[in-house]
Structures
1.
Amino acid sequence: MEDGLIIDDNRQTADALHQMLELLDLPTRVAYGSSPAMTVLGKMIPRFVCLDINMPGLDGTEVLAFIRRDPRLRKVPVIVITSDDQPETRQHVMSAGAQAMLIKPATIDALEDALNKAGIITT
């Protein structure tokens, strides 16, 4: 099974998520932004994606739309992790196909719960 994929342009946030996922025994790759993420997504089918929304260039909603359109990636679970706590953002990403949305800074407990609800892990 492929690794998970973290997509976030903030290195500190991405690296913290990477460490939390490693603690949960979930190996992950990190793409620091949407452009590197699109390259990685062209080469692998990740087990799951942790996706930031507010990024320069393609934002996370556009990356999510790409994932849901691509037949290879369509069923990959996506957990959105963002600082945007607006109800319309939550409604938009959930209707676009995300399995969960967490607000930054995500705790390991909230991340584990979202991964469990998405069927990525079982606790």
Note: The mean pLDDT is 95.
2.
Amino acid sequence: MVFQITQALGRFVATAAENEMPDRALETARLGFSDCIGVMYAGRNEEAPNLLAGVLAPNPGSASLVLGHGRTAAAPEAAWINGVAAHALDFDDVGVGGHPSTVIVPAILAEAEHLDLSGSEMLRAYVVGYEAWAELSLREPGSLHGKGWHPTGIWGAIAASAACARLRGLDERRATMAVALGASMSAGIMANFGTMTKPYHAGRAAHAGVMAARLAEAGFSSSPDAIEHPQGLLSAVSPRGEADKERDSTIGQVWQIVERGLNIKKFPACYCTHRAIDALIDLRAEKGIEPEKVDRITVSISDRFATILRNHQPQTGLEAKFSMEFAMASAAIRGRVSLMELTDDFVTQPDVQDLMSRVDLDLTQNYDPDHPNAALFDQVMVRLKDGDELKSAEVRYARGHAREPLTERDLQAKFSACIEYGGAEHEAQGLFDRLMALEDLSARELLAGHRAARVVA
């Protein structure tokens, strides 16, 4: 018998204020907010959010801030632009099969500013959005990427709808309508990875969440079985039609945000490259590998990860984010993969292009039971020109994974680097401190003073 997933989500959203949320859930939500706002600032000057802002031409005098620009916009548009900025550099966190914070945070931030809500309400809405995302993604045993879907755009629209419905205090019926509306606004295809359209998926999902909750509150109707119906979302996106629509939900009883947490990125590139980057950087440091002495680099990864890493000889920084070949070349030549390397100039350097052509992928179907798309571990082998072969350790968890968390010092260093990259280094410490005390502030207090920030065209 098919379980009423859409209504279960609506019920959870409507009753979430009555549920006691674990402290760890709220701590993880704060982590999601702080990391996302950092990478949002870093991405604020990228072409994608600025082109979108130019086309939308948001009206001044609205309640919601386009972060880092001093401009304001209606909440749906602010969520849209900020969501694109947050995902523009592919530096945002990873969890439950996608990038949850890059959708949920911009939607909550914009709507909470408009409604003048507290930081505590924002954190609780984040948990609601994460749990809705997890409820759906964990019902699909296959890889959405395998069918060409971008999970962040697919699950994100529903998660943002749930979070914004919570902010607006919708009852069960209207919350169910919001979730169902979000299901019809889910979108995003992998063919657009490595272009401005990939971060557009995240921003559009954030915009969809704000709009879905507002429309539902106004009485807009949708199907109360939009997710589980034979022609509903799960059937439509499932690669092999194996989505579990029968299992009872444990949402609100088992907190997936506590069980699974967030994986914070150390590198501004597709997360599928991170374990191998860690492996090669460590091997380079341990063995003193000099890039000019490298003959070939072989990376053992899953076949599913290889599908996502579609660019084998990238020519731009955007393309390089989805290239294992570039990740290995950068790690070998510079000993890092940072925002400074993900530029068109560095990607097209002759030594980088040459080394990329000497990277091989060794594909495996030995999947990790905790992460079916990933191999049980990634490993790098370097063959030197003198014939020596060097093997890295077997890396199962990238640094920054929920099971290998970054230290608070590392988190603050990443945040400060992102704010500095966005051209506002003087704002880093004060904003980070406010984020660490988010429960005690309102959305407007969190961003106090930022409306006077330098405007970037």
Note: Residues 452-457 have pLDDT under 50 and may be disordered.
3.
Amino acid sequence: MKIVLLVGLGSFIGGISRYLVTLFVQNKILSTFPYGTMAVNIIGCFLIGAIYAVSERGNWNPEWRIFLATGIMGGFTTFSSFSNETVSMLRDAEYWPAFSYVAFSVIIGLAATFGGISLIKYL
């Protein structure tokens, strides 16, 4: 139960942070292009990389990694998890699984989004 609460608290912090960063960036760069979302994704990728690098040194309690990576970064952006998992596969020389993960996530994710929109729009 403690882990679930840590993830929930982290997600709360990450979700609010995502909203505030996106709003800040989008208000600074007046454009219809989603610079705010892109900034969140890039910041999240950097931060999850740093979190995992520090946690791999073995100096952290695993609960800190779960709170920061799964909780805060998961609430901030799941793109960071996607990126970290892909990098892990590439580091392990699992090239085909990494390529498949990227291709299927993007292609099927876009198709699923389009499908969800179409289903609701045309019902």
Note: The chain has a mean pLDDT of 90.
